[in-house]
Write a structure and sequence with these properties.
With 594 residues, this protein is of the alpha+beta class. The chain has a five-stranded mixed sheet, with helices on both faces. Strand 18 and strand 19 (519-526) form a beta hairpin.
Length: 594
């Protein structure tokens, strides 16, 4: 098809300060639409066009995307349309540039008769009038030549999904072709390579990078500006040591392309994974850790990650960028869990491993932050002083948490508490802990006696009077809920103090961890029969005395951020049968019997 130059229209009008290159969902200054998980835009309660999944890439395409960015051929393109939904709108203009080895090799241009009137707002934004497209060829005549022009090359545009959904739709409708081409989106790449750019529209990026913008209301001008932006991004990619097309596609981070590429981790590494416990690390092309996690069986855990339908979307986007995998093996599950915690302390990742493997024990948690107390349902976190569980039904637990909050005259989230948490004063927090520990009656009696003994302070010190009164009132308020709470048989999880003795399958010895209020720490290795070793020279008694002293020091202390991860890991290990073969946990009482 001959290339025809765009004509200027006398109907173009003013753009009222709006930059709009294509009226079909690209972000040339237009407000972005909300999208569902598969890319379909939503307007109010109406479901808009949903883009079908792209076909799996052929062997030829897989080979092509492993080529160098500096020597490959790209199709930089832009289209104009009458609206955002290809099922109800048509293309009015297409301009595309073949860019190869740093040079423009060819161009494609055509106006298109959309077969429907162009809305006034689109005429004002694009400058394309009905008279300009009246005698233009139909999409049935243009699309075959355009598909021939682009071939298998990687498509490049700004906010590519908006442009590409029109190309794909009409390729399917007119030519019965499922467009298989991979794409690079300059908007997504800017997010990764120059996140400091304040405005991500073409006009904003032209200003940010000092690019000649010109008139940005037509396909040709937008395509050429996109090409100039793409040249800048190619330089930034090279500075980041991104040399190949597939590396750039993974970097841009869109889910569709990542799923089509699948993992880049070498197949031989995936075939030789150990079946036992360990911690695995996933790396990107720059050898930065993307994700790490402990595993009861590394081979089984990695196999689960490859079942994409089971993996949370945020984690899936992360692991699909992985280029390498490293595994550290451990002789038992507890050591693997603790090594995960230590690794996270030095190498934080965007997706928390516990949100993937779910190895934690949900509980009623009493936290202390900035001098205030809070009650919530969840796992142990930084600032947690006490935890009661395990909880088998979070919904019932949240109802109980809400009932306690209402008993004290507020709702969850009141008084500055985060959503789902109840704010407590000192007296209420003490009563709540007594309530969960099954000692509310004695606590109530002691609170009344304390108020009587401190009569002078109650009379002359308002703060003391308020605190003691709140303890008594809180205890009395919770007395009516005591019976139901006792039926739940909750444990004071962070009261776990003692020794965890775990077999070391490699050395044949026993690993001994001292645990103080749920905080595990490696103590020593014992060879032979562990009970006999602890009995010799009164070792068990000396350990007991030290643990009691240290437990008292930590009784009212919230856990730190790093301690919280260790506590969660230990609590899960202590309450789970997984990885507990031949392992024992000796409480303080148990130590006295040795």
């Amino acid at each position: 098809m001959p290339h025809r130059r765009p004509e200027k229209s006398s109907e173009s009008g003013s753009d009222n300060g709006s930059e709009h290159g294509s009226h079909h969902g690209s972000d040339h200054g237009a407000e972005p639409r909300r999208r569902d998980s598969r890319g379909g835009a939503k307007r109010g309660n109406r479901q808009a066009y949903r883009e079908p999944e792209a076909p799996p890439p052929s062997d030829e395409l897989r080979k092509l995307i492993h080529h160098s960015l500096s020597t490959s051929s790209f199709i930089v393109f832009d289209i104009e349309s009458t609206g955002g939904n290809p099922e109800k709108n048509g293309i009015t203009e297409i301009f595309a540039i073949r860019y190869e080895k740093g040079e423009v090799k060819d161009t494609f241009y055509s106006m298109v008769n959309p077969k429907i009137p162009i809305p006034p707002i689109v005429r004002r934004m694009t400058g394309i009038s009905n008279s300009m497209v009246k005698d233009a060829p139909l999409i049935e005549d243009v699309m075959p030549d355009f598909l021939k022009f682009i071939g298998d090359d990687v498509m490049v545009s700004h906010n590519t999904i908006g442009d590409l959904k029109f190309v794909r739709y009409f390729a399917r409708q007119v030519c019965q072709v499922e467009l298989p081409n991979f794409f690079l989106c300059t908007h997504l790449l800017v997010d990764r390579l120059a996140p400091e750019a304040p405005v991500k529209s073409l006009k904003g990026l032209a200003k940010f990078f000092g690019l000649p913008a010109g008139d940005l209301h037509r396909a040709e001008a937008d395509a050429y500006l996109t090409l100039e932006l793409f040249k800048v991004l190619l330089k930034l990619l090279d500075d980041r040591s991104v040399k190949r097309i597939d590396e750039a596609i993974r970097l841009q981070g869109d889910m569709e392309s990542a799923l089509r590429l699948n993992w880049a981790i070498p197949a031989e590494k995936l075939k030789s994974l150990p079946p036992g416990p360990g911690v695995y690390f996933m790396y990107d092309y720059e050898r930065k850790v993307l994700f790490l996690s402990s595993a009861l069986s590394v081979a089984r855990e990695i196999s689960k990650l490859q079942r994409f339908e089971l993996v949370p979307k945020q984690l899936l986007k992360t692991v699909l960028r992985a280029y390498d995998l490293r595994v550290e093996r451990f002789p038992n599950v507890l050591e693997a869990l603790i090594h995960e915690c230590d690794s996270l302390a030095s190498t934080p990742v965007n997706f928390k491993p516990v949100d993937w493997h779910q190895r934690s024990v949900p509980a009623y948690c009493v936290d202390r932050h900035d001098g205030r107390w809070y009650l919530r349902v969840g796992e142990v976190e930084e600032g947690t002083v006490a935890a009661y569980g395990p909880i088998s039904d979070r919904r019932i637990a949240m109802d109980r948490c809400m009932a306690i909050a209402r008993a004290f005259g507020n709702e969850l989230g009141d008084n500055g508490a985060p959503n789902g948490q109840a704010c407590l004063d000192d007296g209420q927090s003490a009563a709540v802990m007594a309530f969960f520990e099954g000692r509310l009656a004695s606590f109530s009696d002691e609170a009344i006696k304390m108020r009587r003994r401190r009569i002078l302070e109650v009379l002359f010190r308002p703060a003391v009077r308020t605190q003691l009164n709140h303890q008594v009132q809180a205890a009395q308020t919770l007395m009516g809920m005591e019976g139901e709470n006792q039926r739940q048989r909750l444990q004071s999880l962070m009261a776990a103090t003692g020794l965890a003795i775990v077999p070391d399958s490699v050395s044949g010895s026993w690993q001994v961890y001292e645990v103080i209020r749920g905080r595990p720490k490696m103590l020593q290795h014992l060879r032979g029969e562990w009970k006999q070793k602890l009995h010799q020279a009164g070792l068990a008694k000396r350990i007991h005395e030290r643990l009691v002293r240290e437990e008292k020091m930590l009784s009212a202390t919230g856990v730190s951020h790093n301690e919280a991860a260790r506590v969660n890991s230990f609590l899960w290990w202590n309450h789970s049968q997984a990885g507990r073969e031949d392992a024992v946990f000796l409480t303080l009482e148990d130590l006295l019997t040795i």
